[in-house]
Amino acid sequence: MRIVVRASDARVARDAQAQLAAAGVEALAVAGPARPSPDGEDIAIFPNAEDAALAQALVASAAAPLALLLGQRWASPPPRGLITSGVFTGAISLDAPPKLLAAQVEGWTRVVIAEEERARRGLTAEALGLARPQPPEPRRLKALYIGAPSSMFLALERALSEQGGVVAAAFSSYAGFDHLHDEPFDAVVLNGTNDAATAISLCAALRRNATLYHLPTMVVVASGDTDTAKAVIDRGASSVATVNAPCGASLGWLFEAVRRERRRRSGEHDMFALRDLMGDPRTGLWQRAAFDAQFARLAGDHQASGRPLSLAVLRVLPAHGARAPTAETWRKGFAEVASLAARLMRDADCGVTLGGDLIAVALPACRLSHAKRTAERIASVAECTAFAGGDSSVGPLVFEQSAVELQPGESGAGMLARALRVIEVESIPA
Fold first, then answer.
1. Is the terminal CB of the chain with fewer CB neighbours within 10 Å at N or C?
2. CA atoms 197, 203, 204, 205: torsion sign
3. Comparing 167-176, 288-297, 379-388, which segment has the lowest mean pLDDT?
4. How far is the C-alpha of 345 from the C-alpha of 314, rounded, in Å?
5. Percent of the chain with pLDDT over 70
6. Considering just the CA atoms, what is the radius of gyration of the chain in Å?
7. Percent of the chain predicted with pLDDT > 90
């Protein structure tokens, strides 16, 4: 994503750019009135809240970015609550530890890609004469506290009750994970004051769980325990608080993570619902006509925005020397590979089967390298699994791979044809 730091003061813009660079986030600094970025703009970051008028002018322009983020200090978090008001989409903490700042930017990148893709899929569904699915029912704000009793539980309970929310408590890690698997939560707070190792382990365990990977997490550490604070941030914590110290800022940033995650979940829910509406229930991929319409829209939108678009194509073949499967065995096995591919691609990606041996995956806002990695990931996982068709016919698989990136003026159909030509050329025996 193309990130631009905007401020009326050039020094402020450059300082914010340096903070982002220290976190591994590449950004262009633009000072002065709202004018188009020379290379395009997906996310605009404003280090100064007084530049709201500048942000408003950018929103009204023809080249409005997908998100406008307010860069704030950790000690001055955004207000608590579930609703973001004003011109800014959300906030990031420019003086947060580099890993945390990078995670905040990455989180907003996921949100804006999901929301743009949701809108695009909705337009494709309407063009095909399909009604948009109903949005999910709003959920009550709910957090889980795990660990020994402390004053933080009372502060958390008070903060959530002000927003009509509730807090559940589990005083052991085992009970906590039972809660997390039994019901949805907006956030989890881990008390690592007396047992830092368990808090670090729990934080890491959340990131290893596909369902809980994005769950906003706050960890309470002992006074002066900077090692634990750093360790949990390295393992994906959204916020850190110190026991028996004011926790307003930490709770404020936890609420910001909750708002961001709720937006991501909403976009993800609608994307899945629209995909299912236009998809193949056997595989989780798209039906061919719907994919062609969506991919044409993807190519047109990315030509207009200047964002990259990539496509990966895989041909599935029995391994050389393996016994040829029956037609029915191949049909079932290929369907299994296609469903595996659907689970290995990103939520915003869309895939389709072409004939009886080809799978294509379109990756919005992705460079060629991402398409190659996606193809390699699908192939490497599927190649490790021999499929059985029920008639004692089992065989290993190999994959031919092709990846292309959208070229200026190219259509979706032209891009797909170019990717398929590579596969066809590679398939010709020497």
1. C
2. positive
3. 379-388
4. 13
5. 96
6. 24
7. 71
Phi then psi for residue 213, to 5 deg, are: -55, -40
**Contacts for 408-412 with beta carbons within 8 Å, 24 or more apart?**
408/303, 409/303, 410/299, 410/303, 411/296, 411/299, 411/300, 412/292, 412/295, 412/296, 412/297, 412/298, 412/299, 412/300
Is residue 169 predicted with pLDDT exceeding 60? Answer: yes
Tokens in use for 400?
Answer: 């031919």
Amino acid at the residue 309: L
Q: How far apart are CA 260 and CA 91, in angstroms?
A: 9
User: Residue 52 corresponds to which amino acid?
Assistant: A
| Sequence-separated (6 or more) residues with CB below 8 Å from residue 104 | 92, 93, 96, 257, 260
Interatomic CA distance for residues 99 and 226, integer angstroms: 15
Q: Is the pLDDT of residue 385 over 80?
A: no
pLDDT of residue 397: 82
Gap between the Cα atoms of 255 and 377, Å rounded? 34
SS3 343: helix
Q: Under 8 Å CB-to-CB from 197, ≥6 apart: which residues?
A: none
User: How does pLDDT run across 76-114, given as a tens digit for each residue?
Assistant: 999 998 888 789 999 999 999 999 999 999 999 999 999
Tokens of 114: 């999901």
